[in-house]
Amino acid sequence: MYFLGIRNVTHCVVGLILLCQAITSHAALDLNGLAVHEELGEEQFIAGLYLENLSSENKVVLLSEQRKRMEIKILTDKILSRRFNRLWIEGTAINGSTDEIKAQAQNLADFSNMLKIKMIKNDTLTIERTFRRGVEVSLNGVLLGTINNTAFFDLLLRTWIGPVPMSANLKVGILKAGSIEPGLLSRFENIRTTQERVTQIKATVDNQFAAIQAASSTSSEVASSQASSSVATELAAQSSSQVSSKAAEEVSVSSTPTSQLISDAVFEEEEDNFSYTAADLLTRQLYVSKLTRWTSSYIKYPKTSLRRGEEDSIRVTVTISRKGEVLDTQITEESQYKLLNKEAIRAIQKAAPYPEMPDVIAGETFVFTMPIVFALQ
Which residues pair with 35 in a beta bridge? Predict the structure, then answer.
C-alpha cells in the first residue's frame, strides 16, 4: 500500500505539472501596442501586437521565445493583395540578412500565396507564433495555412519593429508595452466582420482543400501507373531525375509554385493565374536590397535640416523600367519637413539609372518602396 500510494502521488504531481504547462501554453496574450498604417494619407489598417510579456524594447520582443500574435484589421474598402504582399516582401528584404532571406524564401512564398486574397474593410488577418504548431495564418478566424518555422514569425515582425519598419509611427505605436490610447483601442476592438464573410472564406478554403486532396490522389494513381512501365522508360526517367536533382542542388530554394489555399472566389482578379515561388521572391528581395543600398550612396543630409536638428523618415514608391530608368516617384509617407522630402526625391533621381531588372523577373516595370531615414547621430 505504501509503494502504491507513492506511485499514485507521483502520477498526480506529473499530471498537475502537465496541466499547468497546458494552461500556460494557452494563456491569453496581452495587447502590447496598436498603430495605424497609412499610404498616401489614407488609412490602410490597424496593426496590433499581442505578447505574453509586455515590452517597449524591440530587441527584447524579437529575441524572446514567447508566444506572439500579430493582428491586422483592415480599414480601407479593399486592399490589393499584391500591394499588401509587397509590404512584407520589401520589409523582410530590408530588415533581414541575406542568409535569413535565403533560408526563409520558401516560407515567404507559402505565406504570400496564403494572402492572394481580397481583403476588405473589417477583415482581421491573424499571424500567430505558437509553441507547437508553428506560425498559424488566419483570416477572420479561418485558418489559411501553417508555416512550421517560428523564426519566420520574428522575421515578419521585424517589418513592424525592426531597424526600418513599414512606417515610423507603426514601430512607436506597437512598442507601447500596454500603454495604448483609449480611443484607438476602442476603435480596434469594435472592428468586426460579418458571419456571412466568415462563411464565404471558410467555404472557399474547404473547397480548395478538397481540390488539393483530389489532385494528390490523382498524382498517386499516375505514379502507380508509371511504376509498371518498361525498364527502358524507367531508366530514362531516372536519368532525367538525376539531372533535375543536380540542378536543384545548385539553387538554394525551390522554384515550384506553392499550393493555393484560397479559391478564385476571393482572389484578386489580376492574380488568378499567378503564384509566388521561392526562387521568384528571393530574386525580388535581393533586388530590392540592392536598389536600397544603391540609393543610400546618393542621399545627403540637407545642411539646413542638420542645423535645425530635423529628423524624420520618408517612404517613396518608385517605378523603374527594365533598364533601371526611373519612370515615376510617389511619396507614400512624407515628412513634416519639406527639405527632407525634397532630398529624398532628389536622391532617387540622382541614383538613376538603377541596376537593370534581373531576367527572371517578368514585366516591363518594377515597383518598389524606398524607405529613406534622416537621423542625427
Answer: 47
Angle at 197 between CA 192 and CA 203, to 5 degrees: 140
Q: What is the largest CA-CA distance in the chain?
A: 87
Checking if the pLDDT of 214 tops 60, the result is yes
User: Which run of H or E residues covers position 230?
Assistant: none
Average pLDDT (198-202) is: 93
Q: How far is it, in rounded angstroms, from Cα 47 to Cα 234?
A: 54
Cα–Cα nearest to 161, from 317, 55, 86: 55
Measured between alpha carbons, how far is 7 from 5 in angstroms, rounded to an integer? 5
Sequence-distant (6+) residues with CB within 8 A of 239 are: none
Each residue of 67-103: pLDDT tens digit? 999 999 999 998 888 889 999 999 999 999 999 999 9
Which of 335, 350, 342 lies closest to 297 in space, CA to CA?
Answer: 350
C-alpha cell at 282: 528571393
pTM reported for the whole predicted model: 0.77
Tens digits of residue pLDDT in 338-368: 999 999 999 999 999 999 999 999 999 999 9
Q: Is residue 74 packed enough to be buried (19+ CB in 10 Å), middle (13-18) or exposed (0-12)?
A: buried
Q: Which 8-state DSSP code applies to residue 28?
A: P
**Amino acid 28: pLDDT:** 87
Q: What angle do CA 250, 254, 166 make, to 5 degrees?
A: 115
